[in-house]
Amino acid sequence: MNDLSNYRKSYEKSELLESNIPEDPINLFNRWFHEVEDFGGDSEVNAMTVATIGLDGFPKSRVVLLKKFNEEGFIFYTNYNSEKGKAIAENPNVCLSFFWYTMERQVIIKGIAKNTSEITSDSYFESRPNGSKLGAIASNQSEVVPSREYLEKNLKQLEKDFESVVIPRPKHWGGFLVTPLEVEFWQGRPNRLHDRIRYTSQQDYSWKIDRLSP
Questions:
Q1: Which of 141, 137, 152, 87 is closest to 113 using CA atoms?
Q2: Is the sign of the CA dihedral 99, 105, 111, 113 positive or negative?
Q3: How many whole angstroms separate alpha carbon 167 and alpha carbon 203?
Q4: pTM, whole model, 2 decimals?
Q5: In terms of DSSP H, where are the helices of 56-193?
Q6: Domain ranges of the chain
Q7: Has 8 been labeled as part of a binding site?
Q8: CA–CA distance from 190 to each of 10, 103, 104, 107 (Å)?
């Protein structure tokens, strides 16, 4: 057994105080996102974990890339026929989380996922490199395949088929918009007395702000 009990770190880089936060979580998320982007050194600041409740009843998490965020919520793209796509179709309650270790920060977002419009999905798909477009067509995401060679053969055939043709977005591929219901910001602090600020959505579209014990 590997004993990790001596893995310890003191968090001392920043603080999160009620006197210095906006009234809504999207503005704070935007601030943190760009601070990490500008000063944190994370190579993929938009990498986030998406947790769903699978069709087998078990939670499952995986890392995807956030592609857009605004007052409506957070958007990522995937194959709707994938394991996570089917899970969201069955149960749209999801959790997104970001861990920016260089800035000792974490954000946890509980929300409801729904398909983006076809116009939104088309627009993003058209912006992708051709290789990524063909990869979305070649891969039946989450399905069992006989080999790596099988996938590469599919891709090579698609490269020939679409050599001089516009590559259309598959109908089974598109975006999910996650509308946040609760957003928690975690800032590491010394002596494990971390700062935790939670925003909870209210019926009048305002946000209730609470400090949580670490």
A1: 87
A2: negative
A3: 43
A4: 0.91
A5: 83-90, 118-127, 130-138, 148-161
A6: 25-119+176-211
A7: yes
A8: 6, 14, 11, 19
Pull the structure tokens for residue 122: 């088309």
Tens of pLDDT along 103-117? 999 999 999 999 999
Percentage of the chain lying above the pLDDT 90 cut? 77
Q: Pick from 45, 49, 182, 21: which is nearest to 103 by CA?
A: 45
Place of tokens 């063909």: 134
**Which residue type does 39 have?**
F
Q: Is 10 known to sit in a ligand binding site? A: yes
Q: Are 3 and 183 in contact (CB under 8 A)?
A: no
Residue 77 assigned to a binding site: yes
Residues assigned a catalytic role: 192
**Class in CATH terms, 25-119+176-211:** mainly beta
34 is in an annotated binding site: no
